[in-house]
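pasting for the record
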Amino acid sequence: MSTFWSVWVSVIVLGTVFGCWWLLWATRKSQTTDTETDRTMGHSFDGIEEYDNPLPKWWFYLFIGTCIFALGYLALYPGLGNFKGLLGWTSTNQWEAEVQVAEEKYGEIYAQFGKTEIPELAQNQDAMKIGQRLFANNCSVCHGTAARGQVGFPNLTDNDWLWGGSPDQILHSIAIGREGAMPAKGVMPNMSNEQVDQVVNYVLSFSGREKDADAAKAGAEVFAQGCQACHGADGTGMEAMGAPNLTDNTWLYGSTYEWIKETVVNGRQNKMPAQQGRLTDDQIQILAAYVYSLSN
């Protein structure tokens, strides 16, 4: 924060506290009596009259205590622009301290599962309860609470895997992450609109859903030039490249003519972030076993 905005924030905050203090004392000084009376303010609303009585002492002292507490808080903790407070507290430091306490408390629990092979670990109910919590906290925002995915995020409960569903491949995906890139118009950037229509129909023909049989037939040559390098000659994909199988009924971005055309024309970019560094090796092992258990 710049010096100007730091001063600006400090003035507003302190001005508010001292303004409340001044208002309290000004109101107190304007009182004509310290005791309750039957005198009214001289006006009435629907038969209700307002008495001219002083502020209750408990309310007055509570307000003073609130102002004093506010000044004490602002002296100890951040709240006045760039001033860090006498205690040097930060939310980052508190979070790191809480993480350290949690690691000391739960580290041994994770460690007892971390050395177990994933297929065996997937059969351990206690480990899977931990894995489910890890998944909910770290993966469900993209893959859904039931791990069935959504548009652009794979379903983890079936047997269709972009990068492979073996224990080692799942572990790699979680720990190191994955980055998928479908270039616009494949490796054929000069693909014409007619050729786009042809290749889309050809892809749809794998499951007998082409709109134009003649276009699909012509699309075979376009596919060979622009798409085969990644998806293979038969369209079944390549796990090593994260290129999906185009001949089944599992589609990451939709299987209609319009969806496929959007993918061909504009390409797709997707990234599975690495969890290494965010989670411990033991936690990643448990999480990988949980994901493995979803389809095994």
